[in-house]
Amino acid sequence: MSQTTDLYCVMGNPVAHSRSPAIHARFAELTGEPITYERRLVPMDGFAQGVRDFAAQGGRGCNVTVPFKTEVPGLATECSERVQLAGAANTLTFRTDGSIYADNTDGLGLVADITRNAGVPLAGRDVLLVGAGGAAAGVLGPLLLAGARHITVANRTLAKAQALVQSHSALALLQKAELTALEPRAVTANFDVIINATASSLSGGGIPVPATVLRPGALAYDMMYGPAAQGFLDWARQHGAVPRDGLGMLVEQAAEAFLLWRGVRPPSAQVLREMQQSTTA
After folding, report:
1. Which of 28, 41, 95, 134 is deepest in the core (most CB within 10 A)?
2. What value does the mean pLDDT take over residues 6-29?
3. Among the listed residues 267, 253, 272, the one whose alpha carbon sits nearest the alpha carbon of residue 106
4. Is residue 1 pLDDT above 50, yes or no?
5. C-alpha distance across the termini of the chain, in Å
6. What angle do CA 250, 252, 253 make, to 5 degrees?
7. Taking a C-beta distance cutoff of 8 angstroms, is the pair 91, 254 a contact?
8. Which helix (H) or strand (E) element contains residue 64?
């Protein structure tokens, strides 16, 4: 008896670079789950239509990448607490009754990669989060829940950083953590962990903060991966920091989405090792 294959995808613009299809294909292989996962490029003004079309074609769920993460909550019937806090989502589940559930697995993926895969504790640490868009919004809550002592959100448009800090102020209070919003040029302190959540890597833009933010041996993490992250990683290495790109975050957030969709947790550490080996081979 043949098994029905369920359809999933990643939507974004650009999306050709996404390694999500390879990750989910490997997850399916290792868990025996019958899924097909593809890339879908959607026009800048056509995200909502793209989601409707995919659902109508029998899609069971989709991941969402730049620049649509903040548009997702408005399309969902129900949003997780993480999405309500972030105002952004990266994972949609299309239910059989026609409703749409939105969740955000980005922060879970980032924290898992930093603490488990990189072996860097976040509890009691000082963290600089560069950027205040959908990517940064998705990870600030989980970083607070991971026990960071002080998080500074640095963004060119200060008002956006302030809004993000304000929306997370109750959680910060609960976690006994300090939250600060600054413009990048106003950052004078140094940090244990620096996370680049801006799209500057994609456009080949310069490093948005001075090298003085890096403590010796600090973890400098770019949420981008592959060639897009190279400039940031080189800068970090030149200034005595430990560079890491977002491939592990991508794999770990994909594992959380897979668990949400299929009820099975795939072996994410194994898949990350395989992908790292294939890029260095």
Report:
1. 134
2. 96
3. 253
4. no
5. 40
6. 65
7. no
8. strand 59-64
Q: Could you identify the residue written with the tokens 């079309």?
A: 53
Query: Does the pLDDT of residue 85 top 90, yes or no?
Result: yes
Q: Starting at the edge strand that comes first in sequence, how are the strands of the sheet with 178-182 ordered? A: 178-182, 150-154, 126-130, 191-196, 214-222, 242-244
- Asked whether the predicted pLDDT for residue 92 surpasses 70, the reply is yes
Among residues 69, 125, 244, 262, the one annotated as catalytic is: 69
Give whole-number Cα distances, 106 to 98, 187, 237, in Å. Answer: 25, 25, 25
Contacts of 8 by beta carbon, 8 Å cutoff, 6+ apart = 24, 35, 36, 37, 38, 59, 60, 61, 62, 63, 261
pTM over 0.85: yes
Alpha helices in the chain (DSSP H): 20-31, 47-56, 81-86, 106-112, 134-145, 158-167, 169-174, 230-238, 247-262, 268-280
Catalytic: 69? Answer: yes
In this structure, what token pair is assigned to residue 42? 């959607």
The number of residues in the chain equals 281
